[in-house]
Task: inverse folding
């Protein structure tokens, strides 16, 4: 009977001996320090600047943060609820100082909002009056 290898054997099989030596008791997650922007944003409040800087940091990472990690940074690093964070972020879209400070970041946020809006409002299938599903124009073009 073949059993899946345990973690140590998997690490050995793939040549990660350095991880085996450094393995010890599980470490606690580090406490977050209050998030501070790394540069000065002219004309923005400190909380606006921190939100903009955190969003710029999140967008610059590859692979991107998962939703849970981003939310943790919002809650613990900025001491904000996610809903308040996104309210501030939406207000920054209309702020000229924010536009000058981080134009690319704000454009990417607008594109993400628009993609979600389109996905919510436009179903992929259209329905004909007889009740049978019909392909949308985009789908019929790809098949035809």
Result:
């Amino acid at each position: 009977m073949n059993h899946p290898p345990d973690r140590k054997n998997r690490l050995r099989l793939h040549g990660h001996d350095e991880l085996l030596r450094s393995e010890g008791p599980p470490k606690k997650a580090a406490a977050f320090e209050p998030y501070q922007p790394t540069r000065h944003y002219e004309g923005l409040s400190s909380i606006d600047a921190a939100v903009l800087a955190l969003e710029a940091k999140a967008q610059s990472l590859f692979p991107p943060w998962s939703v849970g990690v981003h939310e943790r940074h919002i809650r613990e690093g900025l001491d904000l609820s996610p809903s308040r964070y996104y309210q501030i972020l939406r207000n920054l879209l209309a702020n000229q100082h924010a536009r000058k400070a981080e134009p690319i970041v704000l454009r990417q946020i607008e594109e993400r909002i628009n993609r979600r809006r389109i996905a919510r409002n436009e179903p992929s299938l259209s329905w004909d009056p007889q009740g049978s599903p019909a392909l949308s124009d985009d789908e019929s073009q790809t098949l035809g």
In short: The CA atoms of residues 94 and 106 lie 10 Å apart.
